[in-house]
Amino acid sequence: MSSSPNDEAPKFYDSISDRYDKYYGHDPGLLAFIKSSLELLPADASSIEAALAISLGYVLGVIVLDIGCGTGIPTSLSVVQSGRKLHGIDFSPSMISLSRTNVPGGIFELANMLSYAPSEEYDGAFAIFSLFHFTREEMEGLVGRLKGTVFSEDMVGTREEMYDEERLSAQNVPHRFMGRVGEYLMYTRKGWEKLLGDSGYEILKTERVDFLPLAECDEEPHLWITARRVGN
Length: 232
What we know:
31% of the residues lie in helices and 28% in strands. The protein has helices spanning 8-16, 20-24, 28-38, 47-56, 75-81, 93-102, 136-145, 189-198; strands spanning 63-67, 85-90, 107-110, 124-127, 149-155, 169-177, 180-187, 201-211, 220-229.
């Protein structure tokens, strides 16, 4: 899900919230990505340690942020089922409502990722299908603010004339998603490497997996990127 500042975008995601999971909730590439990403994070604290922490008045455990959490399936649900704590944000009221129903063990908040100011540091973060509504300037600011380990995804596949001079990204790339054609910013693999490197991240793994949703959507070449924040 996206967290675009566009006023029309939340309404669109509200309108597809009841059918989104049918087409995207069982994406094999996404499920494999979530599984391998969680394996890189430390496990949550034991129940004894957690009980002690609560009695002392502070929170103990691994906390993961799901940026543009959508319905909570499958990403937020997988995090909670792994025993870790989950905080999800999305700009769609309907998506947040579904997340709270689908993942009762998580904490979900209606928020815009561009203005969201975390009240705590996270041990990891997922950004699934949520980073292609922004300008390059907005992306640079957003990625630079994220903490911990970031697991990020976007789609690739553009026409030659859409690329910038450095071939780091392409503007106004048309894509049909759930029956709606929009124009998006798409980073190339080289662009992601530069964006994340300049923001203080080390890329651990990249993998491209093509996916064709069983809906009114174009084929989606997904570039799955696992990156870790290094230094302060």
